Every structure is written in C-alpha cells, then in structure tokens.
Amino acid sequence: KMAAAAGGAGSAAALWSEVNRCGQNGDFARALKSVNKILQISKDDVTALHCKVVCLIQNGNFKEALSVINTHTKVLTSDVIAFEKAYCEYRLNRIENALKTIQSASQQTDKLKELYGQVLYRLERYDDCLAAYRDLIRNSQDEYEEERKTNLSAVVAAQSTWEKVMPEDLGLREATYELCYNSACALIGQGKLNEAMKKLQKAEELCRQSLSEDSDVTEEDIEAELAIIHGQMAYIMQLQGRTEDALQLYNQIIKLKPTDVGLLAVIANNIITINKDQNVFDSKKKVKLTNAEGVEHKLSKKQLQAIEFNKALLAMYTNQADQCRKLSASLQSQSPEHLLPVLIQAAQLCREKQHAKAVGLLQDFADQHPASAAEIKLTMAQLKIAQGSVTKACMILRSIEELQHKPGMVSALVTMYSHEEDIDSAIEVFTQAIQWYQQFQARTNYGCCVFQPKSPVHLSLIREAANFKLKHGRKKEAISDLEELWKQNPKDVHTLAQLISAYSLVDPEKAKVLSKHLPSSDTMSLKVDVDALENSHGATYVRKKAGKLTGDNQQKEQGQGEVKKKKKKKKGKLPKNYDPKVTPDPERWLPMRERSYYRGRKKGKKKDQVGKGTQGSTTAGSSELDASRTASSPPTSPRPGSAAAVSATSNVIPPRHQKPAGAPATKKKQQQKKKKGAKGGW
C-alpha cells in the first residue's frame, strides 16, 4: 500500500507539472486532461477543481464550468470561486445572478471590482458604474489603466445618449480611437453633430494608424474594425437629413458582413426608418437582421424597444393587421406607460376605418395615464378633424388645461372656430387666454402696488383679440382691448387710430376727445428726399431732368400754372382704293345676312354647266359661267388709273362697299372642287 501511495504521489506531481507547463503555454485543453487525471486520484482536491473551472472558462465552456462549481459547492466555497462563478454567469448573460454572486463575496478583490463595473454597465446602472470605475482608476496602477479609462468614457457616453445627462469633462487624453469614438457618442447625445463627426474622423485616422502598424492585419480587417465608426458617421448623416449619404454608407457596412450582430441590427433598423412606408420589400429583408441570435444581449433596452416599435410600424405599412396588433400589444404590456404602442394601435384602427374605436382607445389611455393626456388628446383632435368634426376637435383641445393659454393653441382654436363661423366661441377663447395671463401676473406680483407692464405674449393676445373683433364687426367689444393696449403704450398711434375708429360708431364725442391725442401733421411728416427716392434703383417712376428755365418762361409758367398736354389722336387707316368722293355703304358694319340688299346664295342653278377636267382647261360654257358678263351683275371694280371714269358716274359704288354678287360664291365652289381633284391626282 505504501508503495502504491508513493507511486500515486509521484504520478500526481508529474501531472501537476504538466498542468503548470500547459497553463504557461496557453494550452488549456491539454491542461484540462491532466487535471481530470488528478481528480481521478483525488476527486475532492480543491486546487484541481479550481484549475478545472479555469481551464473550462479559457476554452469557452461556461455552462460546464458553472455546472462544476454548483456540483462541488461544499468544496468550492464562495470565497474560493466567487470571481469564476460570477464571470460564468456574466458570459451566459445571467446578469442579475452575477450581481448577486459579486455582492455575496466576503472579499472584494480587484478582479471582482472590474467585473462589478461591467455588470453595472450591462444593467444600465450608469451612476453606480461611473463610481466603480473611478474607484478602480484611483486605486489601481497596472498595465490596464488605458482600458479602464476607455470603459469610463463609455459610461459617460451612455449617460449622455440614453439618460440625456450633460457629460462632465473627465480630462482624458484622447490618444486611442476607442476614446475618440466614445467622446463622439457623448457629443451626439448632446446634439453637437458637427463636432461629433470631427471626432469620428479623428477616431478613423487613429484606428488606421494603429492597425496598419501590424503587418498581419489586412485591409479587410481594418475595414471590419472601422465598421462601427462608419455606422456612427452614417447615423449623424441621417440626423442631419442627408439620408441618401447615410443609406449608401449603411449598405456598404452590410456588404462587409461584420460579425457584430448588434451593429448589424442597429444599421438594419436605421435603414427601415429611412424607408418608412416606401421600399417595403427592402425593409422586410432588413428586419431579419434585427432578429439574429444574441441581439438582445448586445443592445440597450431603448435600442431594443425602438426596434420593436419599428417592427410594429412595418407590419402596419405592409397591411399585416394581426401582426401589428400583436406587436403593439406586447410592447404595451412591457411598457404600460409608453405612448407609442397605443398610437400604433390607433393608427391601425384608422387604416381599418374604425375611427370611433381609435378615439375610444386613446380616451381610455388618457384617463389611465394623465401625464400623457395632452399628447393623446392632440391625436384625438387630429382624428376628429380628419372625420370633419371640427367642433368636437375644438372641445377636445380646450380640455387640455396646460395648453389652453399657449399662443399656438389659441391661434389654432380661433382659426377652427372661424372656419365653422362660430365667432362667439373664438372670442371666448381669446378672453379665457387673456384672463389666464392676468391671473398669472396677479400671482407673480402679489403685494405689489406699482404699475406692472404686461408680458409681450399677453399684449400680443390682446392685440390679436382686438384685431379679430374689429375684423368681424365687434367694435364695441374691441374697445376695452384697445384701451388696455393704449394704456400700456400711449405713444402707439396705430392703436389710438383703431380706438378712435371704434368709438366713432359707439360714442362720437369720445372719438373727438381721443382725436386730440393724435399727433399733428407736421410731426407725422416723414423727412424723405423725393428726388433721391425717384432716382433710386428700381423706382417705378423715373423723373425727367428739366432744363433751366429763363426768367420770362418761369413767370409765364407761374401765371398759367401747369397745362395738361393734349394727346394727339391717331388717324385711322383707310383702304388702299378709298375714294373720298364716293359715299360709303351705310350698312357696311352689319353682317352680310342682315343687310337690306342681301338675297341669299343661289344654289342648284347651272350645276350641270360646271366645267370638268384638268386644271386650266376651258369648256364651251365657260363664258356663260362668267357672272361679270351677266346683265344683272354690278359693274366691275375700276382698274388703277381709271379714276376719271369712276368720278363721271355718280351712282357707282366703290369696290370695298359694293353689294355682294353670286359670282364669287360660284368661283369659290369651283376652286374647292379643283382642290379635291388635285389631291386625288397627287
């Protein structure tokens, strides 16, 4: 037995030396085999069990390592194995369990504090996380100081982005691309997009420099590392409205096929938001990237929530009503106080033409969540306006007490009431808003007896109310508002003029008294250089420069005054062969059919005698068709040079005023027939 024990001890020592050698070389798979042989010799060896857990963790077998820990709880106590157990739970995404394990440890080592900071970050407890990393940086001095500073800057960036906390200046020297990237994220949270873009460009430059120093790193590796920086650049472009540039950069990142499922999910979600209700087929392809395994552990709660909202909206745009209702109901159960799930459900009901049901759904939510009642009621009013129920929409808007006095709300209500021709309700809206400001001023100036000027918003409302009443003929009601405005500013001539105009219909004597306060015409005259104004660029009237007048002409002009120039009347144009000696036809302005001598067209006569044949040919009866040779036809027009013959005959009618003859009509018909024949010939 003693010989056997000695042999076992010798083999165990050899195995331990093997474990030590493999551990130093990083060959944990081989070290695990040696540890298992040791455990066959001594199954409850604490050191061997601890080494086995470490080897399993190094090989990525976190479930098996945790199983070993839970199986040997009597041997592996929390003091011995607390860090390894918490780390396995952290890597298995059991974050709450990891936190409990860390907090239950009797001694908080530096390793546990490091892990504690990581756990707090994953739980989005950023204030506690910030305090933990500050303590670590203050009390640690090793080669991991740069990594701790990077984590600290990541916490500050998360606070700025998700909690809208103004980040404090940590005084970190941005010597690495990780620190530059985190600083850019913090700037995005503050809305400083241009500064954030410059930081990202600097981070890209530092990343290329640091990675290019390694000869084993390829260009593809560098682009893969830059993917997250480029993704954030594209996000800034999207926020700036440069959607085309952002979309192009997003698609370039997707083509690289990065291994980070969280990055792919965020980019796919952002592309879906750019597409909106357009390019739905592309959005349905991109949404698959948001469903990849492990995405829920890579993103924050708000990121995951935004992705789920967009899935519900995409289902609505693709007419998947059941899917939309299912997703929105799930979101509402997860966040009962959130507004978006209810709005999505209401939008889906409106697409199904169930407006009344949508309004009822919104009303129920407003009753249950008074904090969100204002936004809900605004949506309800919009739905009522879409249905044409403007009066009901006004009632809903007036029920929002915190917005009743706002100038925008007052303007909207007055416009809507005016559209419905309900002037009394519109005036009532003005009155309530003015009273609210009067009460507010009374509360703020409590105990003050001196004259207090009204706020600009208050005065603006009074002026708008007065103008509205004057516009709709309510001058009696406008007087009190105008008097209040004039009291606030007695030098306001425009208000005084309006007040006098209003009193002129109600109390003329009062209008006369007030008119004495108007400034004189001398004080009202404007000092304007008329010559300079007329000669200015763009003037519609250009003043002609007059020459110097002599003394006689000046006296003459002073005596006669300005004489209006008579415009010369242009002579009308006369016909070329107009004869002034011939009396024009008195019926020349009447249509031909209305003249006394009109006999109508002669149809059907001599139809058979119309010549047929080629153009220019003559027939035997052509002389008979010549209407100028008939006895009944009037004399032909005189040729130029025969004026003596025309003047010798007093009854001859000039060519422009002759009575119509049948010959021209016949000639026109012949021309039309010849044209038809010509078309056929060609």
Automatic annotation (TrEMBL):
Organism, by scientific name, is Chionis minor
Bias class Basic residues marks the residues at: 564-574, 666-682
What one GO molecular function would you report for this record? ribosome binding
Its GO biological process terms? SRP-dependent cotranslational protein targeting to membrane
Q: Where are the TPR repeats?
A: 227-260
Per UniProt, the keywords (alphabetical) are: Coiled coil, Cytoplasm, Endoplasmic reticulum, Repeat, Ribonucleoprotein, Signal recognition particle, TPR repeat
This chain belongs to the protein called: Signal recognition particle subunit SRP72
Show where the Signal recognition particle SRP72 subunit RNA-binding domain sits.
544-600
InterPro entries per UniProt: Signal_recog_part_SRP72_RNA-bd (IPR013699), SRP72 (IPR026270), SRP72_TPR-like (IPR031545), TPR-like_helical_dom_sf (IPR011990), TPR_rpt (IPR019734)
Compositionally biased residues, Low complexity: 628-645
Which Pfam families does the record cross-reference, listed alphabetically? SRP72, SRP_TPR_like, TPR_8
The cellular location(s) given in this protein's UniProt record come to: Cytoplasm; Endoplasmic reticulum
Q: What family, per the record?
A: Belongs to the SRP72 family.
Basic and acidic residues bias (residue ranges)? 576-597
Which regions form coiled coils? 95-150
GO cellular component terms, semicolon-separated = endoplasmic reticulum; signal recognition particle, endoplasmic reticulum targeting
Q: Which domain of life is it from?
A: Eukaryota
Query: Where is the region Disordered?
Result: 543-682
